[in-house]
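This protein record is not my work; I was only asked to verify it. Take the sequence as given and treat only the tokens as open to question. I have pasted the whole thing underneath without changing anything:
***
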Amino acid sequence: MSDFQLTRTLDEHAAESALRTDVQRGLTASPKELPPKWFYDARGSELFEEITRLPEYYPTRAEREILLERAQEIASASGARTLVELGSGSSEKTRHLIEAMPALETYVPVDVSESALIGAADSLMAEHPGLRVHALLADFTRPLRLPRAQGPRLVVFLGGTIGNLRPAERAGFLASVRAMLSPGDALLMGTDLVKDEATLVAAYDDARGVTAEFNKNVLAVIDRELGADFHTADFAHVAVWNREQEWIEMRLRARSAVTVKIRALDLVVPFEEGEEILTEVSAKFRQEGLRKELSAAGLELTQWWTDAEGRFALSLSVADGIAG
């Protein structure tokens, strides 16, 4: 008999408080910036789903290709009885892994959306009678305490989301993941790979302008939630490849001098013509560089799979170098 449990670690005002803090800090900084997590209200999530279907945006298709091809190998290499997914959302991609894990006992999705957690749990338990789902309503960028469950455990972090963290943030995140793991547990992580600039920029600046609308949606979120008077038409979407850092930067550039009022913060934010807000970095990786970052956190990279074109990778790393 399937069973479902939900543990809440975020209070109902956590998102509002975090948004206030991020906007106050980010728009009074020089240069200005906003965290990419604020793209994802209901409209932003719809736009991102549309982005994943665009011809220019290869990461989702490439990662799915690897999961479909390698799910059995991943399941065998990890030996997991418990699957933990950070930023689980709809759990769509994880279904390929779950289907390849007949010995799986417990699935632990971690997300900030309660409705997404409940919806995913309902469908998964219908498809897999006997699967236990213990959902965590939590921010995975903060230290987590996982529920007690049978090991070995496989922690899954898909979508290339690790690339949205700066190097110091990645180091802290990987260390926090390692702290969750016991010897024999493993981390499966999706990473977009360094490639030619034209392909990378096109993936973040598509011909139809869907990514531009997605980028500007953060301004709509601030308008709605904090009583601001941003006008999206006043800002242009910009995507550039930073060769030195090997990451894509998404920015919003003021088309002319403009002043924005944010009533909830009693804040006035002036923009000069051409001034930008950095809204996202998306780092791209090389195998050896990632191996070093994982090693510094106490994780040994043991398996590396890419799609047929070598655009994207899934890596399996084990705690303390001990295989499950």
Q: What stands out?
A: The mean pLDDT is 93.
